[in-house]
Design brief:
The complex is a heterodimer of chains A (293) and B (228). Chain A has 293 residues and is an all-alpha fold. Chain A has one domain: Orthogonal Bundle (MetI-like fold), CATH 1.10.3720. Chain A is 78% helix and 0% strand. With 228 residues, chain B is mainly α. The chains are: A mainly alpha (293), B mainly alpha (228). The interface between A and B is large, with 72 and 69 residues.
Chain lengths: 293, 228
């Protein structure tokens, strides 16, 4: 009797099987294979493509010795902190905050403009950013219109250009998260503080921010992960150049694996990124778990 | 395969419509596979208590955090070994797998909002679990199903990197990849064509987004996804 019940309970889980198979075959397997291949000399073509041999931690040792890798780590951290943690996050909060006070048509217009950049397919957004920052691009034409001299932004300041482009592209996400969060802040609390004579900044720091802190944490985690994985925007705008000046980890992994055909080395870089993603993922899950308690 | 080499360079309508059609196949296929798998998985997770539920949902949540660009190198390696490279169905399945964690999460939240009492009535009348799902639950979460489908569709339509790596022959590539060829090497860009094609390519997702945002009230995906 008891046995039949557990069998029936297990049968109930049958509909989960297609999803589990898909996730195992196409997500879990590549992750595991990545860790495995990063310890081999697997290559795109030639002898090592067919029979890769085990090379131990050689790829990882090369990572540390290769000057391109630490440089890419620094650039990735810069990119994530400047464009996601500071740019998208703060600007999103600012816009969301201003929108709660703005008139409806104004906030609708601003919202549409911000969200449009986010809804556009990534390749189109990347082209638009390229057309804006390139040598004969919109920015230099605008500067020329007021008599100022432009620069070849993508060559002279590639990181500034991709950071600004990513802020433009991704702020909508933070804005939407914070709009939802601010809408949940009870009006009477901040009105009570207003009666007690708290100024705008005081209300923001002591009332609003603590009330939406879980949204802030969630948002920070998600925009960090999204920005960590940005490839197309950088690839279209600068292709990682000039001479690796904007090569973040995803771009480096792509170059090593597909341009130079070194799959083993490419997967070593990919594995570092995967581990980073998992660390953030676990932290995110912890955060949500703690909140539910 | 042969057609692609003979007719590709010259005729503009095919140059335009072929990639858009491929985008449509890729996005529609991915959204359909994802939706079916996600709804099936969400049903037991939403309706039956099991020791398996919580760990599963948390690993799913973790899965949404996996940076997809990071796994493209190993996925390419895997596709080479399994001889799946340049296969549209395999690309659809991969993209469905990457969309699944978020889709399951959203589908479960939408399903949790459907009251259990109606379904229990169906059970009493002798309907099995899956019959109840089809006849009672799904019609009640129509809007949620639409949101998940469109969410995955938009995401796949806009994806450049995955088809760029996994689909090699131009006759199979979606608009996001073929549009990249207009871009040329830096310096020789056909701006007019690029802009025209970009607009044509962007319109479907803009329309779909407006449709969902209107229907579900603003921050559609986030209410289902972020708030948990």
């Amino acid at each position: 009797m008891g046995e039949r019940r557990t069998v029936r309970q297990q049968l109930r889980l049958l509909p989960v099987v297609p999803s589990v198979l898909l996730l195992l075959l196409f997500l879990a397997a590549p992750v595991l294979w990545s860790f495995h291949a990063s310890f081999t000399n697997a290559a795109l073509t030639g002898r090592n493509a067919r029979n890769p041999t085990w090379t131990g931690v050689e790829n990882y040792a090369r990572l540390l010795g290769d000057s391109a890798f630490p440089a890419a780590v620094v650039l990735t951290v810069t990119f994530v902190v400047a464009s996601a943690v500071l740019g998208q996050n703060l600007l999103g909060l600012l816009i969301a905050g201003l929108m709660t006070r703005a008139r409806k048509p104004v906030s609708a217009a601003v919202g549409t403009a911000v969200v449009a950049a986010w809804v556009l397919p990534e390749i189109v957004a990347a082209f638009a950013a390229y057309a804006y920052f390139s040598k004969d691009g919109t920015l230099n034409q605008l500067l020329g219109g007021v008599g100022a001299a432009g620069a070849d932004w993508l060559y002279a300041y590639p990181m500034v250009a991709v950071v600004l482009a990513n802020i433009w592209r991704g702020t909508a996400f933070s804005m939407l998260v914070y709009r939802a969060a601010l809408a949940d802040v009870p009006r009477d609390i901040s009105e009570a503080a207003l009666m007690d004579g708290a100024g705008g900044w005081q209300r923001l720091v002591f009332i609003t921010l603590p009330l939406i802190r879980s949204s802030i944490a969630t948002n920070l985690m998600l925009v960090t992960l999204q920005t960590l994985a940005v490839f197309t925007l950088i690839w279209v705008m600068t292709a990682g150049g000039p001479s690796n000046a904007s090569t973040t980890l995803p771009v480096l992994a792509y170059q090593e694996a597909f341009k130079f055909g070194d799959i083993g080395y490419g997967t070593a870089i990919a594995s570092v990124l995967i581990v980073l993603g998992l660390v953030f993922g676990i932290a995110y899950v912890r955060l949500l778990k703690g909140e539910k308690r | 395969m042969l057609r692609s080499t003979t007719s590709r360079p010259s005729s503009p309508p095919e140059l335009l419509l072929g990639p858009l059609w491929n985008s449509f196949l890729l996005s529609g296929g991915t959204a359909a596979v994802t939706l079916v798998a996600a709804v099936l998985a969400a049903y037991p997770l939403s309706r039956f208590q099991s020791r398996f539920n919580r760990p599963f949902m948390y690993s799913i949540l973790c899965g949404t955090c996996l940076p997809v660009t990071a796994i493209m190198v190993p996925v390419y390696g895997l596709f080479v070994q399994l001889r799946l490279l340049d296969s549209l169905p395999a690309t659809v399945l991969f993209m469905a797998a990457t969309a699944l964690p978020m889709a399951i999460w959203m589908a479960k939240n939408f399903m949790d909002a459907v009251p259990l009492s109606l379904e229990e009535a169906a059970w009493v009348d002798g309907a099995s679990g899956l019959t109840a799902l089809r006849a009672v639950v799904l019609p009640l979460m129509r809007q949620g199903l639409g949101v998940v489908f469109i969410f995955v569709f938009i995401q796949t339509w806009g994806n450049f990197f995955v088809p760029f790596i996994l689909l090699l022959s131009p006759s199979k590539q979606p608009a996001s990849v073929s549009i990249f060829s207009f871009f040329g090497q830096h310096g020789a860009i056909a701006y007019g064509q690029l802009a025209a094609f970009s607009i044509l390519y962007s319109v479907p997702v803009l329309v779909l987004y407006v449709l969902v945002a209107r229907g579900a009230g603003g921050s559609f995906a986030l209410s289902g996804a972020v708030k948990g």
